[in-house]
Amino acid sequence: MVYRRLLNYARPHVWRIALGLACTALGSAATIAYFKVAESLVSSVQSKSLNLLFETLLAFAILNVIKNAATYAGSYTIAATGQQIVARIRSELFRRIEYLPLNVFDRWRGGELLSRFSNDVNIMVQGVMSSPQFIGAILTLVGSIIAMSVVNWRLLLVLMVVSPFVSYAVSRFSAVLRGVTGTSLARVADVNAVFVESIDSMRVIKAFGREEHEYARFTNSNDAYLGASLKMSQIALTQTPVVDVIVSLGLAILAGYSFYEVVIGRLSMQEWAAFFTLAMVSGNPVSQISNYVGDLNKAYIGAKRAFEILDLPVEASDAPGASPIKDIRGAVEFSDVHFSYDGVNNVLKGVTASIAPGDVVALVGPSGSGKTTIVNLLPRFYLPSQGTVTIDGRDIRSATLGTLRGAIAIVPQDPQLFSGTIADNVRYGRLDATPEEVRDAAAQANADEFISRFPNGYLTLVGARGIRLSGGERQRIAIARAILRKPRILILDEATSSLDAQSEALINDALDRLLVGRTTFIIAHRLSTIRRATLILVIDDGRVVERGTHTELIAHDGLYARLYRTQALEPAETST
């Protein structure tokens, strides 16, 4: 199956591959033709002909030029084609990862995906670089055998005695190498996973003083990878001398028998020279093939692991008959919505709620109650296992995904910035925005003032994940990005929960402008956000257990009131 898929990738390049094979075949033919040179050299010595000697040496020089030029042309053409095929696979791999549903990222570690994208594709490149030499060695070996059968079939039979041993050794080593390669790639994926996780969690690691603990985790993974790599190297390096010993033994047997044939007069010196030259020519490809088979086996495993990612399902495509969703007012309704991440345990258990256009809805509840899951259903990050989610009375599954998400903006608690400029990160909300629109959005988000203080202004590089900016500055850029998008529905994961008072005031001021006229869902943690809400939904164990305004819920003295008092947002005696 893997080989068939690789052949499908190669099909558009069939003529270039054919040209490369033709050049490689010409190089192999020139190599095989050395036996005629050897035969002619012996004849020139026996006849003491200087002219024949000169012609033979000239023929050898011409053959050498043809061999090297053709081999180079064939190797470059095939290797370049192979690189293009791998580049296409790499591109498709990245595209597939971009379009994977979020539940895939819930199961796969980032380091594992990185390993498939990087290490596995790199060993495919190594296989591609070895394939021209492998093809040339095969052609040279086959051509040499055919030529030897013409020169003296008896000697060929003697040489073929050792061929089953060579074939068995190569096949056994190949089978073992494939298994060890798979283990090695799995171990390097573990190393990458620990590394990526450590980089992403560096602040936490330093806060808890866990540098040595993380180093120990990495060392354990690295030692496991080292063991697998050493085993792979041991098998690959053992294969060559074992095959070489078998081939050398065969040549030794051939030398003894061929000299016997010369002594009894059944074999001429010209035939002996021609056949032994062919035997030497064929012996080199046998050793080379054993090396190249190792590279190709590793490339096979790399391709297999890469195809596993390519075979993962992408996000659910638009339903048949789906159409763009336009002129959204922002009325949202959840009707008996159930959802499970694993197909067994329900996270949402019959959520029902109606939200009017322009409402600011705060989702409140204990950790793990299902608040984030509810808002993740709106942009169709996940689909309900039961029930419906509608916008303006229309089931969101009947809308095209592009237009649905185009009407929604998300401001996360920990804003994700990309390692470009400030302008690039704001413009991420709408890629065709003009510089004036970017600046206006930043001004509305109270970000223009601090951006203007940078020497490069909007062209300031923010660093990986926006590391060069403070938390409040990152959050204001994320809000500017949302403003630029001009969404009808806004999702906020408490944008001020970890900021100082000054930054919180600036962001709350920006949010007051952003929320106007938009249906907003807020995963609420703080009083300032809760009091902004026109409707509060209290979530517990995947259900809406209370709903109402802040005053109504405090008067009800239920779960909301208890959470409110626990967070010391209001003295207990005021709730009656």
What does this structure look like?
The protein is an alpha/beta fold. It folds into 3 domains: 309 residues, ABC transporter transmembrane region fold, CATH 1.20.1560; 172 residues, Rossmann fold (3-Layer(aba) Sandwich), CATH 3.40.50.300; 70 residues, P-loop containing nucleotide triphosphate hydrolases (Rossmann fold), CATH 3.40.50. Helix content is 65%, strand content 10%. The strands form 2 sheets. The chain has a 6-stranded mixed beta sheet, sandwiched between helices. The protein has a 4-stranded antiparallel beta sheet with strand order 2-1-4-5, with helices on one face. It is elongated. The C terminus is likely disordered.
Summarize this structure as a short list of keywords or feature phrases.
single chain, 576 residues, alpha/beta, ABC transporter transmembrane region fold, Rossmann fold, 3 domains, six-stranded mixed beta sheet, four-stranded antiparallel beta sheet, 10 strands
User: What is the end-to-end distance?
Assistant: 70 Å
* Approximate shape: elongated
Q: What is the average of the pLDDT values?
A: 80
Main β sheet profile:
6 strands, mixed
Secondary-structure-based class equals alpha/beta
The fold-level CATH name of the largest domain is ABC transporter transmembrane region fold
Name the poorly predicted regions.
569-576
Radius of gyration computed on alpha carbons: 35 Å
Helix content: 55-70%
Strand order of the largest sheet: 6-7-8-3-9-10
- Name of the CATH class of the largest domain: Mainly Alpha
Instruction: Give me the count of strands.
Output: 10
Structurally, how many domains make up the residues?
3
CATH hierarchy: architecture of the largest domain: Up-down Bundle
How much of the sequence lies in strands comes to 5-15%
Full CATH superfamily name of the largest domain: ABC transporter type 1, transmembrane domain
Number of alpha- plus pi-helical segments: 21
